Amino acid sequence: MAKKTINDFRQMVEKGEKIVYLTAYDYLTAKMQEKAGVDMILVGDSLGMVSLGYDTTFPVTMDDMVRHCQAVRRGAPNTFIVGDMPYLSYQTSNEQAIANAGRMVKEAGVDCIKLEGGGPMIAERITAIQQSGILVMGHIGLTPQFMGQIGGYRAQGRSANAAMKLVREAKAVEAAGAFSILVEGVPAAVGKAITERAGIPILGIGAGSYTHGQLLIYADMVGMYDNFTPKFVKKYANVGEVLTNAFKEYTEEVRKGQFPNDDEHTYKMSEAEVKEFLAELDR
Ligand code: KIV
């Protein structure tokens, strides 16, 4: 399958076809997702929690993101990849935002970058990055890099005023030049209102069923990340349990001397060579 482009996503929206979007942070997962036929992969800064064991996304660096985007690109060479801009990689100036977005493209080969927020400063960054030739996906609603200001990891846009603010932010992000917007953690009515008013693809994570596409964090939907599971996640598998059981079985077998079985799990040597080898040892 050829890698999808901005034109394919626009056509999918026109035809009413849903865009399938998942996060990945490593080569093997990306390889499986490409095989499964997902349309888009996000190397999210959720990397911080899912792969690096931090409590938040704040400590994630540009070097972390570039390294993991490279691995995902190697695993999914024919899938549209979005690289997430980590905290303070774009907030301080347009120049810094362009330079860091450029690293994602030049060093990791991503197709698009994503950044959080819907205020005037973020709109300015989106314009600057997209004018340098890089596709930008906006991200509004529950934006973890604004955790302190939005009062923690909680749904957004639940009052009429807050919902109107999000609709206005979506319009501002679109006007700034984003090619698409990810809307996170809002009631379905808000996801629907934003989608119906948008001229660009709207992806949702925990934003109801009306958005043009759906994103989930892969480690949530396969049951690997169990520190916290948001309400909007559906678990399609329990890989965490499968892996833990496999690790337990291996632990027991090694301790009991049941693994390895030398008839099955070791390299063969002819009897003549073994005989000669033993004779040499005794000499
Ligand atoms: O970092 C990430 O994976 C994200 C999603 C939570 C939307 O930005």
Automatic annotation (TrEMBL):
Location of the active site: 184
Location(s), subcellular: Cytoplasm
Alphabetic keyword roster: Cytoplasm, Magnesium, Metal-binding, Pantothenate biosynthesis, Transferase
Cofactor comment text: Binds 1 Mg(2+) ion per subunit.
Organism, scientific name: Sporomusa acidovorans (strain ATCC 49682 / DSM 3132 / Mol)
CDD domains (alphabetical): KPHMT-like
Cofactor: Mg(2+)
HAMAP family the UniProt entry points to: PanB
Assigned protein family: Belongs to the PanB family.
EC number: 2.1.2.11
Keyword Metal-binding: yes
Pathway(s) annotated for this protein in UniProt: Cofactor biosynthesis; (R)-pantothenate biosynthesis; (R)-pantoate from 3-methyl-2-oxobutanoate: step 1/2
Annotated binding of Mg(2+), by residue: 45, 84, 116
GO molecular function, a single term: 3-methyl-2-oxobutanoate hydroxymethyltransferase activity
Protein name per its UniProtKB record: 3-methyl-2-oxobutanoate hydroxymethyltransferase
Catalytic activity annotation: (6R)-5,10-methylene-5,6,7,8-tetrahydrofolate + 3-methyl-2-oxobutanoate + H2O = 2-dehydropantoate + (6S)-5,6,7,8-tetrahydrofolate
